Backbone:
């Protein structure tokens, strides 16, 4: 269930307006010793979601945590403050503007069809990416909680981060340009199917429903993936059964 809740949260976050940096707070001890940034993020509602609830806050927190992980920051903290704010602590990130560029803004959800003839390449690129992510996790586990990083460690960390971005771009290039985005999504929910299995149900507006049907029809029965991207990172790549080759999923 946890896996589907996380995936659902990432989807729901796409209906939230921009997350903005509203203040930079005094640093805690660990940041004082090592250097870094501590910021408060304000979550703004939209016309579709006029009230920010706990569900939306958990969704936005999941997205922000994903962006923080992309920075490769060790011992980062992302926690809720009140009903509509998040506290973010980033050891080693001394440029608040860099943090704002990475953390601010509305997350972008995209549904994209995999390009024909790229099936084997996608498997290879995914394997390469997983290797880089494992390398990053192993390095982060060895980083000191306080104090500056050694130059060699800093350089290695930057290289791994660059390798991850290269792999994510390589995977993205295996898919057609975005054909459907999260701004046409109206709701998403997780529900049980059989036994311990769960499924995520998504709902679109009228235009989105038609586009989703066409998109799923185009890949149905081909073995190619329907790429679900969040902030240009492949979140999931399910295939579509051949039974939907005529009409797509509606």
Residues:
């Amino acid at each position: 269930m946890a896996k589907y809740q996380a995936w659902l949260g990432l989807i729901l976050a796409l209906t939230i307006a921009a997350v903005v940096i509203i203040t930079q707070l005094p640093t805690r001890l660990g940041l004082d010793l090592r250097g870094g940034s501590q910021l408060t993020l304000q979550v703004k509602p939209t016309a579709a979601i006029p009230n920010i609830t706990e569900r939306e806050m958990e969704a936005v927190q999941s997205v922000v945590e994903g962006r923080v992980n992309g920075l490769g920051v060790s011992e980062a903290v992302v926690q809720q403050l009140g009903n509509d704010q998040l506290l973010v602590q980033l050891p080693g990130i001394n440029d608040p503007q860099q943090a704002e560029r990475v953390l601010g803004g509305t997350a972008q959800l995209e549904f994209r069809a995999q390009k024909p003839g790229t099936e084997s390449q996608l498997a290879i690129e995914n394997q390469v990416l997983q290797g880089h992510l494992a390398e990053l996790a192993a390095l982060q586990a060895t980083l000191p909680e306080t104090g500056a990083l050694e130059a060699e460690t800093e350089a290695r960390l930057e290289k791994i981060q660059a390798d991850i971005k290269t792999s994510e771009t390589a995977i993205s290039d295996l898919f057609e340009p975005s054909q459907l985005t999260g701004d046409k999504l109206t709701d998403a929910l997780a529900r049980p199917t059989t036994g311990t299995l769960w499924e995520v149900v998504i709902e679109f507006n009228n235009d989105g429903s038609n586009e989703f049907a066409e998109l799923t029809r185009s890949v149905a029965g081909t073995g190619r993936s329907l790429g679900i991207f969040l902030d240009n990172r492949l979140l999931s790549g399910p295939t579509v059964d051949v039974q939907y080759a005529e009409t797509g999923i509606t």
In short: The domain at 17-106 is CATH 3.30.70.3400 (Alpha-Beta Plaits). The longest strand covers residues 36-43.
